[in-house]
Structures are given as C-alpha cells and as structure tokens.
Amino acid sequence: MNKIYWLICMSLFFIMQLYANDPPPTEVRAVWLTTNYGLDWPRNRTDIEVQKRELIKILDDLKKFNFNTVFFQTRGRGEVLYRSVIEPMSSVVAAPKPGQSAFDPLLFAIEECHKRGIACHAWIVTYPLGGNKHVQGLGQNSVTRKQPSIAMKYKNEWFLDPGNPKTDDYLLSLVAEIVNNYDVDGVHFDYIRYPDDSPKFPDNTMFSKYGKGKNRSDWRRENINRFVAKMYDQVKSVKPWVQVSSSPLGRYRPLNNKHDGWNARETVLQDAGQWMMSGKHDALYPMMYYRNHLFYPFADDWVLNSNNRILVPGLGVYQMDELKWPKEDIVNQIDYTREKKMAGQAYFRTANVLSNLKGILFSINDYYKYPAKLPAMTWLSDTLPDAPHDLTAEKVKGVFQLKWKNETTERASYTIYRSENEDFDIDNAVNIIATGVREPMYELYVEDNDEAYYYFVTTSDAYNNESVICHPAFFYHSETIK
Predict the structure, then answer these.
(1) At 19, is the pLDDT very low, low, confident or very high (cuts 50, 70, 90)?
(2) Intra-chain end-to-end CA distance of the chain, in Å
(3) What is the reported pTM?
(4) Which of 157, 172, 229, 386 lies 20 to 30 Å from 445 when distance is taken between CA atoms?
C-alpha cells in the first residue's frame, strides 16, 4: 500500500514543478542553527568578536536567500547560551577578555535576526543532560548536582525525569527566564520525549507513586502532555504572541495498521498531534528526515493532526551527506509541501544548506526568489492592525529611502511592496520587497533609470496579522525625471 501511495505521489511531481516558479507570499522558511559542539556556530571558541562576525555572516547569507526563521539552539544538554541564574553558560561561548563585557549569544542572535527581518526562536533541548564526562564538566552547576532528585542515568546518559512533577517546575523556570527576559519570536522544544528504548527507562519509583493503575506507556505520554500544557499556558500568560512549537520525530504514529518503525507516539511516547489538537501548541516542525514512502504519507498524517495550525516538515538536508541522498529527494519534498499547502519548510542543519551541499542552496534559491511573510496565528488573535500612513519615497544622498508613520505602541513589523500600478495583488510574491522590517523606515539600492513604481507598506502585529495597504508613494527612479 505504501509503495503504491509513493508511486502516485511521484507521478504528481511533474505538475508540482510548476509551483517552484510561483512561490507563495506567505511561507515559513526555517533553519535549525545548531550550537551543540559548534556544529553550525560558533567555530571559534576563544574570541567574542570573531564569534559575532561568524554569526553575522550566517544571518547575512540566510537573509540573502530569503529565509525568514531561525531556530537558535539556546539550551543544549544542561547548559545554555544566554545569561541564566539557573544553568551555566555553554562551553562553546568565548569568555570575555579583560575589559570586555560577557557575551550573551541569545540577545545578540535576536537583535541581528530582527535587523534582517528574520524571526528568532529559542531552541531548547528538553530532557537529555548529556553523558558522564559532560555532566562532570559542569561541576556543581549541573542540575544533576543541584537537584539530583529530578535527574537519572540511563544507558550512560543523564536525563531529567518526565515522571517527576518537580521536573516540570525546573523546566518552566528556564522557559520563564527566556520568555521574560528576551524578545524571542518563539520557544521551540527538541527531545521533548522519552529516550529511545524507553520501556527500560528507570522510573519505577515515580510510576509507583503517580501511575495510579495506568498503563505505563499512557502514563508516560501524560507526563509529557502535562508539561506541554503547563508550559504553553505559562508562555501565553506572559507573552501570548510567542509561538510555542516543537520538533517531534518525523513519523507521528503507525499507519495502515503496521508498526512503521520508529515513531513519535509509540516509540518515545510523544503525542505531538494531541498537543496541536488540544490547543497547546502553535506549530509543529516534525523531523521528517526520511524519503519516499516513509515521508509522503506521514507528512499527510501530520496535516490531519495539525488542527489548522502551523505545520512545517523538517527536511533532512544532512542526509545528502550521511546517507548519500541525491538532491532531488529534498527538492521533491519542497514541491510536495507546497502542493499540499503546508505552511513551509525547515532544514536541518544550517551549515548543510549554506555550504550548498550537492547544489541544494542553488535549488532553494529557485524556490525562494522573493521574500515571504510568516503565517498569522489567528487562533491567538485575528484583529487586523492599523495600516501605516504618510508614506514617503525619496533618495537621500544617493540612497533610496522609504519612511512612514505608525502610532502603535505594540510589537509590530512591516512588509514593503512595489508595483507598476496602484491596483496590485498583495498575494503575488513578486511584489514583495521586504518582510519583517522592525523600524518605520527602509533603505534599498535602486538603479538610476526610467522606471517608476508605486510603493506600499503594511503593518503586521505580533501574531503576524497583516493590515490593509497604506496609501502608496509614487517614485521615478531617474534622477532627471520627476
């Protein structure tokens, strides 16, 4: 059955190629930026300024190719990349030199992402704490030392125990630090699940205390669900616009009454579809690092369990290196996400994309010809913000400059459009110049020629609801024709 399904899907790809030339105006285009072991960043471990330049280069490249979302790995295994009073700073972050301020990578990443119109989500590794050597290296600052009752060793690795309610409190304190103190666009959870081969996980004490006659697998799922619900409600009570998401295993559940191998709900007790259906997640980015019949039907199943919220398959670009996939596997998956009108694509990992592995970046460039807006979270708010006004367009010292006014005191961003006439289509991506602009001003280079355009600006609120267009500004690009 799965093979027949796959053949049908593949037969559609000739038609779906047309979509690459007609990009949607709204689409998530995300990357996971891995800081664990400095895989994506930082390569330098000794100089703060070098680390900053490295990150700026990565974000400049992502902006150039019209990516609009970065999952910045903010918590690894028991250590963090922000200023925390709970856990130690990651060892990959350079220490300050004499007279130099300590580096706050998350703060810097957010500021630099926002300068480029890119959303920055704090990516949090949830339950794993690392091996003995890593934990010992953290010394007294390790949660295994500070709160040993919520940590346990399993297969030479340390984990927080999802079955202990005090684990919820500990993780919620970390989430509160991030959401309260940083202007993140989202919090994104990884490893929000039991470890592999979980039936042997040593949680007998907690199960005896809290299981209350339940099946152990059901109890474990409920442990994860309990934390997810608490976390979601906590985030929304502080900053309701912060997107809550996670990256579950790529296959949600068995299909066609088969085991279907490793899957989220049964293998690691990760009922991610339930999180969406119960309203305790805004988005899912499942790690769909598979191909053919292990990708397409499972992608469809995620859509069925998305509750019309944001569903973005994670595409395993790294598999072109590790498993020698051809580039066409990833390209076909991009086609499929657009054909099925999914919310976008996410790629693991950043370096595999930006290194143009097997030419994948050039292919992505064909799909991402124009900037794209982020989907609105209308289940949180569907009120449209006020449009900007008093838009002006002029050249100032040779630089083309758009300025406008907007009296809102709320968190907002702007999308800029250009058209040859006033009657243009806001849903045609070719008209978009920039998205995610954070200030009421935008500068760009325009050629001195005989072309003339109408420029428009819209406001998007913190939930990505977009206003109507403002009154346009008309501008001749020629210095001699006015």
Answers:
(1) very low
(2) 66
(3) 0.94
(4) 386
